[in-house]
Design goal:
Layout lengths: L23 H17 L4 E2 H10 L20 E2 L13 E4 L6 E10 L34 E9 L11 H10 L9 E6 L3 H4 L3 H10 L3 H4 L8 H5 L4 H20 L4 E4 L2 E4 H9 L6 H13 L14 E6 H5 L13 H20 L10 E6 L6 E6 L15 H4 L31 E5 L3 E7 L2 H6 L1 E3 L2 H8 L5 E9 L7 H4 E7 L6 E3 L12 E7 L5 E4 L2 E8 L2 E5 L3 H7 L4 E2 L2 E2 L6 H12 L1 E2 L5 E4 L3 H6 L5 H16 L4 E7 L5 E2 L8 E7 L3 E4 L18 E3 L2 E4 L8 H13 L12 E4 L2 E3 L2
Helix pairs in contact: 1-8, 2-8, 5-8, 10-12, 18-20
Length: about 750
Amino acid sequence: MPDPYGERALLTPVMVKGYDAVPEEERQRLRRYLEAVVAARPAPVHTTVAFNAVYFGYDLGGEGYGGSPLRLDDFPVITFGECAPVLPVGAMVCVTTGSDPLYAEIVYREGAHPAGGALGDLPAWVSGAPAGAEGPGRPGNDAAPRRRELLVPDLHAFGPALSLSPAQLHRLRTRRRWINEDGHVVVDVCYPSPEAAGSDDLTAYADHLLTTAREQLLSPFVPVSLAALVGGTHDDTLRVGLLGLLDTVRGVLNTSAPLRTWRNYAIARASLADCWRDTGPLGGDDLRTLAAAVEHAATPGRRRYGLTTPVTVYTAVGPRLRGFPGSTELLRGVGYASAVCRANVALADVVQRDSDQGLFDSGSRITLDDAFEGGGVWRSHHPGDAEAPGDPLAPAGRGWRSTLPALPEPEPEAELDPVDLPLADDASLCTGELLQNDAQEIVWRTPLRLAHLIGGWFPLHPYVAQKLRRSYDARAAVRVELEHVGQALDEKEAIQDVTAELGDGSGRLTGITWPRDFFPGLILELRQHQDGTALRLATTRLEERVQVGDRETGHCYDPRVLTREDAPGSDRHGDSAVGLGPRQLVMRTVRRCGLLTPDGHALIDRSVLPSAVYGRRPARSQADALEAAVAELLAERLLEPALGSRDLWGQPHFPARDREPTIPLIGYRPTRRLIRPWGDTDTQLDGVGLLTAQFVSGHLRRLRPGCSPSDVQRAAFREYCRRLGKADGWELPHGYTFVTEHTRGR
């Protein structure tokens, strides 16, 4: 059985690129381990919990995380009070209880709105309502919304040594201060922003690991560190790699034959089959009863003359299960998460098997309306054939939307053409650097701009232009020697006869033919010997190749220019937003108009995006298309949400300033991914599809009993810790050795 601390690490560098990039052999090794984890855990295994298992080293022999060398001091300490911090599924915490600390892993989470009924009946407005909603049609305007949630902690995830005794747990349940009588945590969660409250589970967990649990994430005692997998500790690099790993884990779970997934929760198919055969509480009979109750919940009352009254009923699965006789004990602890996921799977199967897109023969339409509140809210509506069909398992939030005031039909609006606003910081992007000016030569370095590529020209430093004016008039024919370090250029590109225009100002070279792979932001170094007339233009090579967005390069570049001028619609043939679709318009506008940071990030006030794209407020259809594109780009992590502030003059700022109202931003993050030649999983050998070599990150490995690491491995681990930010290094934990990074054939 594969082991996170085994001979071969289960997480490999290619996995940070997401599931689609991973070779099937590596997928299968990870899949075998995660299938065993799902079989061993008493609750459904969420994607984030599965990530924890492989990343933090979950022991399948009964010790859980207690069998790994993790430091408990790295766990965030949580004190529950009037308002609790955000704890996504997967969060590992130490809960202060006034006596013995309570170590737990959050394995399940759902909404627990107080307006819900005891048997699962729910007011329509609660289903699909945003966090902080105050009532029907009232979304609330709190910048830090609250939402009541039910969290299910696994109190035995860290093995017997770190688990409380039955007597201690009973005492905590009786007090109902930290956990309730069912062993659950019901708290009012305070979100930093409405956008944070709307984040999906994987994004929320990534944010948690990169902030609250950062020490835990970058611990050198994990089997293989994320920093080692991505080749650095830069925040952007870590975020992209972490989301890639989570995508890999999700893909592995979704493609496992023995597993069934429901909303990122994985359940063994064998356990589902056992449940259907079970005739006891919450077994097959009760699940059939639940499905029938949901289907017929909206069966209308009959009026005289056969007229039917339309009826809509919303049923929350979690509370509804508590109404079944004998269910109380089965819904305690992690059993609640298992029961809710099994019930949702049963309802989904019935809808898919016995209905036409949710429309049953009875005339009722059954759809999932809210996947989070109450363990899942199912909507029953009669007559169902009066509604437009759609995916019955895609949460539509019709309950909440039905309480919003109807908007008047807008008059048709004329659609606008996108505009190309000038770069406000254009002048600051032109700065070059004089490196040398002496009796031997003049050396000047500056980034290549989009205008240079389009027009075939390049500016001259005033010192270079001044020297040329001593020998020539306003125009001169000069020779340019172009060198692209590490790349072979065509003879016509390597040596070019161009024109130097030496009029007023600094002057420039015109008539240049730029090589095909030159791009905006590429750093060029111009040299002119004092005793010669030829000019030399050369690129500078990076130590390792990097990928920035869609651009891959092995040469030095200016990240600010690259963000601004390598956007959609910009290339050496022109620079225009005409003809771009909504996604490209959003990306172009964020990159060209957003607040620009020195490392190439661009952030824009989300509310002004439509006006920035079209120059003024566009037609509603165009604004809706842009908003849909933003949602897609955020979901695909090509853009990321952020919080800024706005000053008295209406100018946005990031980070948010104190005592200024916060505003939602959307940001472009130029991913910087190291590309190791030996880590390329697409490399082939002799045309047979075998890899010549694979890069293996440094990782911990469990030793056989009686063995001990060498002094060399101890020293290598201390150096490894220093690279992770531990200045003094740490010692290897007992029973483990360190395998240094290396390449191996396959």
